[in-house]
From TrEMBL:
It catalyses: L-glutamate 5-semialdehyde + phosphate + NADP(+) = L-glutamyl 5-phosphate + NADPH + H(+); L-glutamate + ATP = L-glutamyl 5-phosphate + ADP. HAMAP family: ProA (MF_00412), ProB (MF_00456). PANTHER family: DELTA-1-PYRROLINE-5-CARBOXYLATE SYNTHASE, GLUTAMATE SEMIALDEHYDE DEHYDROGENASE. It comes from Salix suchowensis. Keywords: Amino-acid biosynthesis, ATP-binding, Kinase, Multifunctional enzyme, NADP, Nucleotide-binding, Oxidoreductase, Proline biosynthesis, Transferase. P5CS plays a key role in proline biosynthesis, leading to osmoregulation in plants. This is Delta-1-pyrroline-5-carboxylate synthase. Coiled coil: none annotated. In the N-terminal section; belongs to the glutamate 5-kinase family.
């Protein structure tokens, strides 16, 4: 398959998923309008670097088979700068002392147009691309024969892979002045671009500006926010425009007007920055850059523009409908979710592979990419875990009489980095436990999360509603969500210690989770060394990026002399593990010293230290660990019992890999995360960790009446 075929196949896949910006990606004819602020620098000279990057992107589009038409501004400004320079060169000192009269705009246009096209021709020629100049005036479009001939000429040029470059012929235009007269069929190059997009049946119009896109207020105002999708019904009355462009005649007001006219005539429009070196290619790849205008944008408002509070309230309402269903009904929903995942496995993997490729290209850490990837068989494994969860005993309503019953917490906010499989596990647990859910995944898994969310919510019946599970797509919404302690009941962050710590310090909502996964394996002098080697290797290399992977190996000092330590170190090195040491291990093994014992590598690296005995190991774990999962390998059961009783961690193991600390392996069906908290839930958090209690009292008219003559007795009742 050629690069062109692969590119087209990828774009069609993205378009099929109906991701908003991917609606742009498969269009054949692109019309690009370049503003004066992009073409020139602040001093009026040509911005050669920006123009060069722009021409390279257009060349790439041209090479991929796309037909590109340009509308360029900048001639008047460039002509004025050249005429000023010429006047300066030819003036005497006394002439320079006189008041300088501004140049006629039409003369500036005539001089500047020649220079502008010369630079385009030079830049495109270096890229082996041919360009053509077409100058038009407002009056031309009143002639139907002209419009027909214009279309034929442009189609001929495009068939020859030539780039037509349009500009208004200001030099002979009948307008009073290029910057003053706003009458006619078009009135500036923004409206000309919209007109040409309609006349030439373009599939996409891109307006390049000196700012990232359309903002809610002046871009210089820190309170202004970038509007990703313009929805006329929402934004028309809310936007406050700043000053018009420092050059040119329109500014953002003109661009928005042109964009609305084109979009509502059926041509999608993107306003984005021409300063960024690759924004056109990013649009091609379906990335969210700038502001999108589309005639169907109002249909997306309900899903994409919903605020954090509305999303949380909708999740709570759906949660209450879910709680009202029978256990069998909730089981049926989970089984349908499992079936939907398997039925859409190919589509999910395509999106996930795109996320992984983008992460690799962006140079993200290998540990993050490892967590991001949905490995072969992962979807089937997730579906099977959901089926196990569905067949578990109903967790809601089970208790005593006076009934102490279990009930859902309400609405959960889960913030997680990478790991799209976490979305599936968390969602299935929320459905089984009757909780509403807001999900915020990392941007590196945007496509994977979007398709998984769509597959799962489609499987939820209308009696509950897909809003049971909300997908938060903007990082800006997280600070606002963390303030909603009246509608969100629990926050569970899954990611780096920086993420967890930041969330804990930013909200009044209870937070469940762990900041670090610094897991230890202590190998005692009584250990079976063959077993120790297996446990240590599995704990480190089975999945180094996991939070339950071994980060520190503690070894009894007697194993230094018996050779046991060297065996363990040799095995780790053979498997490619990079070793760092504490003070004693550094001297004994000649390895670099660890900068701190409290460090989570999430990679093929670990810290090694030598300790006196199990008590020293326990002290080390308490001082430097994270209370996640710690393990002892020992044949001396008295030593093992001391370790198991005294290590204050969420999970403590004897002769077993730390990798077993997992909700699915513990029989919980799945997990929302691992908690190191000592309140509510600890360790892998499954269904029970997402429930609270409530009391139900059934009576027959009893009253307290000051407890007069009453003796309370209690006994357990069998339900």
């Amino acid at each position: 398959m050629s690069d062109l075929d692969r590119s087209r196949a990828f774009l069609k896949d993205v378009k099929r998923l109906v991701i908003k910006f991917a609606l742009l990606a498969d269009f054949e004819i692109w019309l690009l309008k370049v503003g004066t602020a992009v073409v020139t620098r602040a001093d009026g000279r040509l911005a050669l670097g920006r123009l060069g990057a722009l021409c390279e992107q257009i060349k790439d589009l041209n090479s991929l088979g796309y037909e590109v038409i340009m509308v360029t501004s900048g001639a008047v400004g460039l002509g004025r700068q050249r005429l000023k320079h010429r006047r300066f060169v030819n003036s005497s000192f006394s002439d320079l002392q006189k008041l300088q009269v501004d140049f006629d705009g039409k003369a500036c246009a005539a001089v500047g147009q020649n220079s502008l096209m010369a630079i385009y021709d030079t830049l495109f020629s270096q890229l082996d691309v041919t360009s053509a100049q077409l100058l038009v005036t407002d009056r031309d479009f009143k002639n139907n024969d002209f419009r027909k001939q214009l279309d034929e000429t442009v189609q001929s040029l495009l068939a020859l892979r030539v780039i037509p470059i349009f500009n208004e012929n200001d030099a002979v235009s009948t307008r009073k002045a290029p910057y003053e007269d706003s009458s006619g069929i078009f009135w500036d190059n923004d409206s000309l671009a919209a007109l040409l997009a309609l006349e030439l049946k373009a599939d996409l119009l891109v307006l390049l500006s000196d700012v990232e896109g359309l903002y809610s207020g002046p871009p210089s105002d820190p309170r202004s926010k970038l509007i990703r999708t313009y929805i006329k019904e929402i934004h028309q009355s809310e936007i406050t425009f700043g000053d018009k462009s420092r050059v040119g005649r329109g500014g953002m007001t003109a661009k928005v007007k042109a964009a609305i006219n084109a979009a509502y005539a059926g041509i999608p429009v993107v306003i984005t920055s021409g300063y960024a070196p690759a924004n056109i290619i990013k649009v091609l790849q379906g990335e969210r850059v700038g502001t999108l205008f589309h005639q169907d944008s109002h249909l997306w408002a309900k899903d994409k523009e919903i605020g954090g509070r509305e999303m949380a309230v909708a999740a709570r309402e759906s949660s209450r409908r879910l709680q009202a269903l029978s256990s069998q009904d909730r089981k049926t929903i989970l089984l349908e979710v499992a079936d939907a995942l398997e039925a859409n496995e190919k589509l999910i993997n395509i999106e996930n592979e795109t996320d992984v490729a983008a992460a690799q290209e962006a140079g993200l850490e290998k540990s993050l990419i490892s967590r991001l990837s949905l490995k072969p068989g992962k979807i089937k494994s997730l579906a099977n875990s959901i089926r196990v969860l569905a067949n578990m005993e109903d967790p809601i309503g089970y208790g005593l009489l006076l009934e102490k019953t279990s009930s859902p917490l309400g609405v959960l906010l889960i913030v997680f980095e990478s790991r799209p499989d976490a979305l599936v596990q968390i969602t299935s647990l929320a459905i089984r436990s009757g909780n509403g859910l807001l999900l915020k995944g990392g941007k590196e898994a945007r496509r994977s999360n979007a398709i998984l969310h769509k597959v799962i919510t489609t499987a939820i019946p209308d009696t509950v509603g897909g809003k049971l599970i909300g997908l938060v797509t903007s990082r800006d919404e997280i600070p606002d969500l963390l303030k909603l302690d009246d509608v969100i009941d629990l926050v569970i962050p899954r990611g780096s210690s920086k993420l967890v710590s930041k969330i804990k310090s930013s909200t009044k909502i209870p937070v469940l989770g762990h900041a670090d996964g610094i897991c230890h394996v202590y190998v005692d002098k009584s250990a079976n060394m063959e077993m120790a080697r297996c446990v240590v290797l599995d704990a480190k290399i089975d999945y180094p990026a996991a939070c339950n992977a071994m980060e520190t190996l503690l070894v009894h000092q007697d194993l230094v002399h018996s050779g046991g330590l060297n065996e363990l170190i040799a095995d780790l090195r053979t498997q490619g593990v990079t070793l760092f040491g504490g003070q004693r291990a550094c001297k004994e093994l000649n390895i670099p010293q660890a900068h701190t014992f409290h460090h989570e590598y999430n990679s093929m690296a670990c810290t090694v230290e030598i300790v006196d005995d199990e008590h020293a190991a326990i002290d080390h774990i308490h001082q430097h660990g994270s209370a996640h999962t710690d393990c002892i390998v020992a044949e001396d059961h008295d030593v093992a019992e001391v370790f198991l009783r005294q290590v204050d961690s969420a999970a403590v193991f004897h002769n077993a890999s730390t990798r077993f600390c997992d909700g699915a392996r513990f029989g919980l069906g799945a997990e929302v995360g691992i908690s190191t908290s000592r309140i509510h839930a600890r360790g892998p958090v499954g269904v029970e960790g997402l429930l609270t209690t409530r009391w139900i009292l059934r009576g027959s008219g009893q009253v307290v009446n000051g407890d007069q003559g009453v003796i309370y007795t209690h006994k357990d009742m069998t339900l």
